[in-house]
Amino acid sequence: MRVRKAKLCDAGEIHALMQPQVATGALLPRSLAYLCENIRDFVVIEDDEHRLVASGALHFLDEDVAELQSLVVHPRERSRGLGAVLVQRLLRDARRYQVWKVFALTHLPEFFLRNGFTRTTISELPQKFVRDCVNCPKLHDCHQVAVICDVYARGARRSTAHTAMPVAARPAQLSASPLAILQ
Ligand SMILES: CC(C)(COP(=O)(O)OP(=O)(O)OC[C@H]1O[C@@H](n2cnc3c(N)ncnc32)[C@H](O)[C@@H]1OP(=O)(O)O)[C@@H](O)C(=O)NCCC(=O)NCCS
């Protein structure tokens, strides 16, 4: 098994992996076009035959908050810890981007509570409510539970080398940092 960032050519396989869960209502539908446009959000796990067996996404909502979306593990590979691996990888990515909080809306709060999240309410997530929930046909009949994970303690994330660096030192140092983020 290998965890890696998704490539554009993975979009079709991610779509196929998600479809049965979309049919049960566990996942929101995502078109192939949406997946292509947002493929940089996705992390995948591939097995030794290079088949995708799991995927999930971290979608930035504003400069503080990101949503963990479209988390799915192929049914034959469940209960082996792959879901937890994906969540930890996406939280690591959130840390690299200095996201303050990561949340999810889910029918499976137990899974997220085991992985460092706590329960919250949609009223604590105005970014999500204004952007998506107000237009959702299930607005008044929503059974999803909001869960959230503090990636950084308030005030901690801004104390990075980037902002603290002397101006004269920036060009050389910055040339390395985007590559580090993309790895
Ligand atoms: C949720 C999901 C990604 C977990 O993947 P996984 O690889 O099985 O996760 P892990 O092995 O790390 O953890 C499994 C644990 O999560 C919890 N869990 C998973 N599915 C559960 C369910 N339907 N009901 C209650 N708890 C569940 C259990 O504690 C389980 O432990 P167990 O196997 O000992 O019972 C996978 O079940 C899945 O793809 N579900 C369908 C899509 C979905 O619902 N995604 C989440 C929407 S945000």
Task: Describe, in short, the structure shown.
The chain has 183 residues and is an alpha+beta fold. The protein is 34% helix and 23% strand. The protein has helices at residues 11-24, 32-37, 82-96, 109-113, 126-131, 161-164, 170-182; strands at residues 2-5, 42-46, 52-60, 65-73, 101-106, 118-120, 145-150.
Descriptive overview:
This protein has 183 residues and is α+β, with helices and mostly antiparallel strands. The protein has a single domain (2-158, 169-182), classed as Aminopeptidase (3-Layer(aba) Sandwich), CATH 3.40.630. It has seven helices and seven strands. It has a seven-stranded mixed sheet, sandwiched between helices. It is globular and about 45 Å long. It starts with a strand and ends with a helix. Bound molecules: coenzyme A. The site of coenzyme A has 19 residues, from strand 4, helix 3, strand 5 and helix 4.
